Amino acid sequence: MKNILLLLLFLMSIFTMHSQNIQQLEAKPSFKGITIGMPISEISNKLSFEKSSNGYSIYKVADAYYYSIFNVTMNYVRVVGLNGKVHAIEVIKMVKATNEHATVFDASELDVIQAGLTRLYGDPQYKLTENNSQYNRIGVQWISNSKEANCFIDFYGTFVGYKLQFSLCEHNEDF
User: Fold this and answer.
1) Chain centroid to CA 27
2) Are strands 56-61 and 47-53 parallel, antiparallel or unpaired?
3) Per UniProt, which keywords does this protein have (predicted)?
4) What is the pTM assigned to this prediction?
């Protein structure tokens, strides 16, 4: 009887731990102090405006402090604004092939980012896979009530390159 009770408590703690992790995404959708829903004006000194597209304002983050995630060096950070608030954060690393060096598909940095996000949000809920004529995508996704986090790699080809990306954004059901 005691063993059954302990097993039941253990299983309940695992379920609670997982649901609390995904609630972390809902409660604190933030990357290094930039939080989904915060006014753009609070971080405008860190941003340079790039363009407007379909009602969204797109900014590049100029501060190098933001150019890493879980000790993986990235080379571009973008904040997407909507109605004066942060709607999305994208942290990107582009690796291009050169005449001297082809790119080799290596998911080790993706694995590091995914492991870090799993510690924050629990196991990924969805796999991101897409194969089309332009790229092959592999990655994972977490979705809470109104937020989502993604990490993926788009591989364009050995003689083209790849894009590694982490993104955090508002999530709206589209049905």
Assistant:
1) 16
2) antiparallel
3) Signal
4) 0.83
